[in-house]
Amino acid sequence: MTVYLGVVISILTIVLLLGLLRLCVGSTRLDLISSLQLFGTLGVAVMILLAVYMDQSALFNVALVLALLAPTTTVILVRLGGVTDDEH
Q1: Which one of 36, 38, 59, 64 has the fewest beta carbons within 10 angstroms of its own beta carbon?
Q2: Share of the chain above pLDDT 70, in %
Q3: In which band, very low, low, confident or very high, does the pLDDT at 86 lie, cut at 50, 70 and 90?
């Protein structure tokens, strides 16, 4: 079970880093917002898996806070950025 969790955490971390790369070099604002949403979602998944893997209940709290902040940040960026359908 711990090997399986370690492999899944590693894969999700690699995808998280690729999302971070996309966040840094995104071509449009919509790409940036999408990658930011992916970053938040994967961050929550990695935190929950790490909490189970390391038996640290505090990481569940971190995941909960991240789960609450990630969509809020996306909504704020969409509101401030004025993303329209033309930016596909």
Answers
A1: 64
A2: 91
A3: low
